[in-house]
Design brief:
The complex is a heterodimer of chains A (about 220) and B (about 120).
Chain A: H1 8-16, H2 39-53, H3 59-71, H4 73-86, H5 88-96, H6 98-104, E1 113-118, E2 123-128, H7 137-140, H8 145-148, H9 150-155, H10 160-166, E3 176-181, E4 186-191, H11 203-209, H12 212-216
Parallel strand pairs in A: 1-4, 2-3
Helix pairs in contact in A: 4-5, 4-11, 5-6
Chain B: E1 27-30, E2 49-59, H1 62-65, E3 75-83, H2 84-87, E4 98-104, E5 108-110
Antiparallel strand pairs in B: 1-2, 1-5, 2-3, 3-4
The chains are: A mainly alpha (about 220), B mainly beta (about 120).
């Protein structure tokens, strides 16, 4: 069996395809549960306890923050880009100053700057952070495992077309592949091209096809 | 469709950095230096020649912030566009493919024509 910890393609496929096997209901839910807590987990826990004891934060605030990361943040990027698809003036503002455009929608991206990059018939954009895993978390939630993998981070910058192909995205040679290494203070989001067959759709319908992977640029939105 | 090409050099409403050394379109070389410490300039781009794509503004210096200092004075941050063929001479994709990233001003120097470190 493929090792899902080291093979992000397998992990990705695994996440979407459970057709051929049944999960052991008693398997550990988290690989960290297999051993003693790491030094960082202990430090993090100790820090939380001290801050709670000093009355600076509460356990409920921490829980609420984790809940936002899972239930709110992952859907914000889709909403912002869906708005850009239906409102050309908003799209222009998003391209000029991503942070300010998000604030218009009541979204604080919690980073200095957001740069939105637009796919066109001539250009396909994709995002990577080779140095660590910088990611627009307040728009897309937590980065997927493959985004943080050494495999993705090291290969996207020098063989982006091979990586895209492995994600099922084949681009002709007349399309420029424009890779963005998110290596310092900016955060990035891709504005994909709106596919044919979505005429008259509401923003909510459009947001459905604006998946996380389309906003990172490893795939393009499709009408299912 | 009459869309502007989004890979034309960037328009940005961001606060321009006063006293900056480079403008959009300038050709620059990333310094080929290997100092120790926390650096946000990837090793693979050092020595490569590109073009200023946009000026991001002035930000606290991450090389100082990383060690608990205040990051002052702020440094001007640029986005620099490189041809993949310049970065990786053995790049197998089309010549038009691009890679862009953020480089702080103190890592950049003006590039003269034909002075790339890599043999063409």
């Amino acid at each position: 069996m493929t090792d899902h910890r080291t093979d992000y393609y397998a992990a990705r496929k695994h996440a979407h395809d459970h057709g051929d096997h049944v999960h052991d209901p008693h398997a550990p839910l988290n690989e960290h549960d297999n051993g003693p807590p790491s030094e960082y987990e202990i430090m993090s826990r100790a820090m939380q306890e001290i801050l709670e004891a000093k009355g600076l934060i509460t356990a409920d605030e921490i829980r609420r923050r984790m809940e936002q990361f899972e239930e709110d943040f992952p859907y914000r990027g889709s909403r912002v880009v869906a708005r850009a698809w239906v409102d050309p003036a908003f799209r222009k503002r998003l391209l000029e100053d991503g942070r300010a455009a998000c604030i218009e929608m009541g979204i604080d991206i919690e980073a200095e700057r957001l740069i939105a990059v637009e796919n066109t018939p001539e250009v396909h954009n994709m995002i990577v952070c080779t140095l660590c895993s910088c990611y627009p978390r307040a728009l897309l939630g937590m980065p997927p495992t493959w985004y943080k993998s050494r495999n993705y981070r090291s290969r996207v910058v020098f063989e982006p077309r091979s990586v895209l192909k492995e994600f099922g995205t084949e681009l002709p040679d007349n399309v420029t592949v424009r890779v963005h290494d998110s290596n310092a203070d900016m955060r990035y989001v891709v504005i994909p091209m709106r596919p044919k067959g979505t005429e008259g759709w509401t923003e909510e319908q459009l947001a459905e096809i604006l998946t996380r992977d389309t906003l990172v640029g490893v795939t393009v939105p499709r009408v299912r | 469709m009459n869309e502007p090409k989004s890979h034309s050099v960037g328009k940005s409403a961001y606060a321009p950095a006063p006293g900056r050394r480079f403008e959009v379109g300038d050709r620059v070389r990333v310094k080929r230096r290997f100092p120790p410490g926390h650096r946000r300039t990837p090793t693979y781009i050092r020595g490569k020649v590109g073009e200023i794509e946009r000026i991001c503004g002035a930000f606290p210096n991450p090389e100082e912030l990383a060690y608990g200092f205040d990051g002052e004075p702020k440094k001007v941050l640029y986005r620099v566009r490189f041809a993949q063929k310049e970065v990786w001479p053995r790049y197998t994709g089309p010549d038009r493919d691009l890679i862009e990233m953020e480089i702080y001003e103190h890592w950049l120097e003006p590039a003269m024509a034909g002075t790339s470190d890599e043999k063409k």
